[in-house]
Amino acid sequence: xxxxxxxxxxxxxxxxxxxxxxxxxxxxxxxxxxxxxxxxxxxxxxxxxxxxxxxxxxxxxxxxxxxxxxxxxxxxxxxxxxxxxxxxxxxxxxxxxxxxxxxxxxxxxxxxxxxxxxxxxxxxxxxxxxxxxxxxxxxxxxxxxxxxxxxxxxxxxxxxxxxxxxxxxxxxxxxxxxxxxxxxxxxxxxxxxxxxxxxxxxxxxxxxxxxxxxxxxxxxxxxxxxxxxxxxxxxxxxxxxxxxxxxxxxxxxxxxxxxxxxxxxxxxxxxxxxxxxxxxxxxxxxxxxxxxxxxxxxxxxxxxxxxxxxxxxxxxxxxxxxxxxxxxxxxxxxxxxxxxxxxxxx
Length: 346
Prior knowledge:
By secondary structure, the chain is α/β, with parallel strands linked by helices. The chain has helices at residues 10-25, 33-40, 44-56, 71-76, 94-109, 130-137, 152-160, 184-197, 221-235, 249-257, 275-283, 312-328, and strands at residues 60-63, 67-70, 80-86, 113-119, 141-146, 165-168, 170-172, 179-182, 203-205, 218-220, 267-270, 292-298, 307-310, 337-340, 343-345. Helix 11 (275-283) links the parallel strand 11 (267-270) and strand 12.
């Protein structure tokens, strides 16, 4: 008597392929249904049945607002990311809010929970930040994204914990570490070329060194622009205006105005976003000096040309991508940097 011929249901084959996929890629969250249909080249009903069976067996767990979690790997990994921001910054400002919204969205899509830690006086005190202490001591904190500079002792402590971290908009001279920062000096160079082609020859910049904050090992975005500003003008054969970057922006502006009229900057850069509106107001007091003011603005906000257009969302995505790679490789913070190109409008 012949035995009946049996064929394995297609959804069972997809289940096995899904398990192999999970074992190989170790995702925290399963790809969406549409992507699975493309991946396995089967119907929607077949994918749904395979996912349903794996859910019943405890391999997968659908979570509203997060997707279908792969339980095995969700439990194996620390799933909390910390974002450190000084309490002196306005977290409702366009730059910070755009950065946080993007980080939240990116973390969410990768099955991480985002935690915001506010630090005071450029230090994060574990005694006054119980949430930070709990996540560090429990081993649940996978890594940190620093939107604010921290004092050297704090950075040393993070390194001793072997905790991956990425900085945004600043770097530390004493440490090689990952960072994501806009390449403002590159876009300033392009703008200068455009203006010199139109006959402008005198360029000035208003910026304030972060070294006055007594963070001697920290170099902010302004510091790097200041470092390269003089060399940039010299390589283009343009005159260099000498002034004190440790002075306030208002003091720098008044010193420029005190120069002979034929030596004052014809084009004035304010690369640090918060200075832009203040400088516009200050320039109104000078009736006989009207330089072209190139300020730094945020993509999506109301702005007038000429301007540099920063995109904090891209910076946030780059920073998170770097941190994710470090976490996945189970390494401490390695020297991986990323400079983000900026747009401008004249």
